[in-house]
Design goal:
There is one protein chain. This protein is α/β, with parallel strands linked by helices and 271 residues long. It folds into two domains: 108 residues, Nucleotidyltransferase, domain 5 (2-Layer Sandwich); 144 residues, ATPase, nucleotide binding domain (Nucleotidyltransferase, domain 5). The strands form two sheets. The chain has a five-stranded mixed beta sheet with strand order 3-2-1-4-5. A hairpin with a 5-residue loop joins β7 and β8. α2 packs across α8, α3 packs antiparallel against α6 and α6 packs across α7. The two termini are 23 Å apart.
Length: 271
């Protein structure tokens, strides 16, 4: 009988859910806006996940929650930090991952993993929006573009506009100055990406980054972000297949569920 495990990542912007079978194969994913009722978003994402998989709640043997709202999932069996879940999720795709960069809407996180995939060091940048995906999305909106257009607009740029502000307020002022001077939107968005990359690299250096490096989070959907990071680091990087960059923590939570079930089975057999 197939043993399903689920992971739910309640993030600040979106809530993601993933379902794995007993072999670790990804069965289904689902994503909904988080909103202000985190428990409701978790239930909505979970119900959508089960619909996509053609399953019901009784088919799921174990569920692990993660993310900022992990405590707001009342039907969880276990909760885990997003750093722990990201470590498991990135290694699900790239087993030799040692450094993880996660750029989300409200936070940026860098972590270094040990030989067993556990977090050996980490740094967070959640104090200023200039170091998160929110700055990139806000810049796009100011220029008249939606989030889904960021990748194409930035990719069309030949030269990035300079955006060096160390905080969101100063960076936004620079964006406004570029618009006033007639700089094309693609160059401004490209500059916002380069600015975000600079902060990303600084964060990774603080955890003493080691290859292999895996990039995750919604911002990694944009090829320009990945390309500039690769160029800045001067080495190859891993990126999960689109759109799973956003689901690695949820997948990692489901992996933790599989590991917990395996441990429980081993203890039962030894008893």
């Amino acid at each position: 009988m197939t043993t399903l495990t689920a992971g739910i990542d309640v993030g600040s912007t979106y809530t993601k859910a993933a379902l794995l079978d007993h072999a670790g194969t990804l069965v289904a994913t689902a994503m909904v806006p988080t909103g202000f009722r985190l428990d409701a978003a978790a239930s909505q994402a979970y119900d959508a996940l089960l619909r996509h998989a053609g399953a019901v709640r009784d088919d799921v043997a174990y569920l692990v929650s993660t993310g900022a709202g992990r405590y707001q999932v009342p039907f969880r069996d276990l909760h885990a930090t997003d750093l722990t879940a990201q470590g498991r999720g990135t290694r699900h795709f790239f087993p030799r991952t040692r450094t993880v960069l996660d750029v989300g809407g409200q936070t940026m996180k860098a972590s270094r993993l040990d030989d067993r995939g556990r977090v050996a060091a980490f740094r967070l940048n959640d104090k200023c929006a200039a170091g998160t995906g929110a700055f990139l999305e806000k810049t796009a909106r100011y220029l008249g573009f939606g989030t889904e257009q960021i990748g194409a607009v930035a990719a069309a740029s030949a030269e990035a506009a300079q955006i060096s502000g160390v905080c969101a307020v100063f960076a936004e002022s620079e964006v406004i100055n570029h618009v006033s001077s007639g700089r094309v939107a693609g160059d401004i968005l490209h500059g916002a990406v380069v600015s975000l990359v600079a902060r990303s690299v600084q964060l990774m250096k603080r955890v003493r980054l080691e290859p292999e490096i895996t990039l995750v989070g919604g911002i990694m959907r944009f090829p320009t972000m990945v390309r500039v990071l690769r160029e800045e680091l001067g080495q190859e990087v891993n990126v999960p297949p689109d759109p799973l960059q956003q689901f690695t923590a949820a997948i990692g939570a489901a992996v933790l569920g599989q590991q917990r079930l395996a441990r429980r089975a081993a203890e039962h057999a030894a008893a």
